Amino acid sequence: MAWRNVVVTKHCKISTKMKLLVVQTDDDIIQIPIDDIGIVMIATTQAVITANAMAMLLKKDVKVVFCDDRHMPIGETNPYETEFSRRSCIVRQMSWKEDRKALLWQRVVQEKIAHQVAVLRKSCACPDIEKMEGLVSAVCPGDPDNREAVAAHMYFPRLFTYEFVRSNDDNEINGLLNYGYAVLLSEVSRKIAEIGYLTEFGIHHDSEKNPFNLACDLMEPFRPFVDEKVFEMEERSLDSAAKDELVRLMRIDLPDFGTTLTQLINVFVRDALRYLSEGDCLPTLGFCQ
Asked: Do the beta carbons of residue 61 and residue 194 sit within 8 Å?
């Protein structure tokens, strides 16, 4: 099972040798078994990767994420070969029923808010947390009243101080959050593509300019894992060490779950897609009972 994340931050050449990924810098040569790798994040525009390396990584279903000159994720790979028939999955996806999409989005929002409440209980003193907790049961199918946004308005100031504004790109906390969310989005979209579905067609997000609408939907309950990690990092700047820590979050063991965040994502995404395609049970993370 893949358990390593490779983050490339400096000028280098990325190639392959036998079943190894070879990263050659000016000072060193690093060789990593490809079977051990889950994600390769190329966090610099000064790296070169060979076509053969890309082909092998795609064949092994290793997600490759590319970053721009600001070191922010800007795109990623998706293999054509999947574990299921891609065509049959897409046909099912185009016929997902509106009521099932609405019920799934209700569950996603409920899990997200309940998870946010759990983070607040663990991370900081919040005397009026019951008000936010009451929003969980107030979410209706499809969330027409946008309880998700109401919860976010209550959640972020309580977690990161009342001066915090989520839309402020100059705030270092937002830089850390955005990077962590981008890594999370990549992990969710990797699983969607692996199963054989299109990330472009979501259940709630519906932007023509967003190639990851479905991944944006299904990542929502997992965002608080990133929030909690950023809170623990105490407003560090978005340097190489911080980026590496956020990437490693995907594969470290979570004591409360007995597994990794990647495995939680795998199960939740698989169950969500099964439900949309006429499965019996809605997916759950256990935050919303």
From this structure: yes
282 inside domain: no
Residue the block writes with tokens 């932007």:
207
Give residue 84's pLDDT band: very low, low, confident or very high (50, 70, 90): low
Separation of CA 193 from chain center:
13
Contact partners, residue 112, CB within 8 Å, separation at least 6: 148, 151, 220, 221, 223, 224
**Same domain? 193 vs 107:** yes
Q: What is the DSSP string of 222-234?
A: GHHHHHHHHHHTT
The span from the CA of 65 to the CA of 41, in Å, is 5
- Report how far residue 207's alpha carbon sits from residue 153's, in angstroms, rounded to the nearest whole number: 23
Angle at the Cα of 245 (from 119 to 167), degrees rounded to 5? 60
**Containing H/E element for 98?**
helix 98-123
Number of separate domains in the chain: 2
**241 shares its domain with 164:** yes
Degrees to nearest 5, angle at CA 39 with 110 and 52: 145
- The secondary element (H helix, E strand) that includes residue 76 is strand 73-76
pLDDT, tens digit, 9 for 90 and up, residues 204-228: 999 998 989 999 999 999 999 999 9
- Percent helix, strand and coil across the chain, each rounded to 5? 50, 15, 35
Is pTM beyond 0.90 here? no
Average pLDDT over all residues of the chain: 90
